[in-house]
Amino acid sequence: MADLSARSPRRVGVMGGTFDPVHHGHLVAASEVQSWFGLDEVVFVPTGQPWQKSDLVVSPAEHRYLMTVIATASNPRFWVSRVDIDRGGPTYTIDTLRDLRARMPDAELYFITGADALGSIFTWRDAQGLFELAHFVGCTLPGYDFAPEKLRGIPEDQVTIVEIPALAISSTDCRTRTAAGDPVWYLVPDGVVQYITKHDLYVSEGSAPRLAAQEQVISRQAPAHLAADPGAAP
């Protein structure tokens, strides 16, 4: 682990995602990357309108935000930003990083994503600009056969692949289990289980989360526990 007292500026991890719901896979990945790079903190950024998932029903942003707050509350290095939720419009990674850079101009940003997602990074909006704003950390499971050629074109000094302990958890599976009446205890934090139950999430439309009438969220891979672009949308 890096010596935090011996260097500056502060290092900030950025864990973006739909978090529908947030689960232990997200938290373990963030914790491992925090330790690997000696990050001072990791900010979780729930997406506002995830354009990559425009064909799917996504839970209201406020529910996803509050579940993430609950899940991260016990770790003093974790916090949650509303930057994507409050911006409005489809969420793109470049906007997420620009907004965080404006709020933390002296910080080094480390964007945490699934390793396979990096293979399609040049299809993301303003891809070249991404590498000027953050170092990219691609997460894989131990033993995962990741092809290095997937990183072709990405500056070598701007990307690192990190193995994360094998937690084969996905938000999709958590939603499906809830819809089927199966338990999600120990897959997601206890407080998130209680929040899902209290607000009756994920129970009315099969494996897809129910869309609350008060909000239409229209727009927003690698280990099972990380989305293809678990941060904001490309």
Keywords:
globular; 234 residues; alpha/beta; disordered C terminus; 7 helices; 6-stranded parallel β-sheet; single chain
Please provide a written account of the structure:
The protein is an alpha/beta fold and 234 residues long. The protein contains 7 helices and 6 strands; from the N terminus they run βαβαβααβαββαα. It has a 6-stranded parallel β-sheet, sandwiched between helices. The radius of gyration is 17 Å and the shape is globular. The relative contact order is 0.25.
Total number of beta strands: 6
Strand order of the largest sheet: 3-2-1-4-5-6
Q: Please state roughly what percent of the residues sit in beta strands, choosing from under 5%, 5-15%, 15-25%, 25-35%, 35-45% or over 45%.
A: 5-15%
Taking all residues together, what is the mean pLDDT?
84
* End-to-end C-alpha gap: 30 Å
Task: Outline the biggest β-sheet.
Answer: 6 strands, parallel
* Quaternary organisation of the protein chains: single chain
Order of helices and strands: EHEHEHHEHEEHH
**Class by helix and strand content?**
alpha/beta
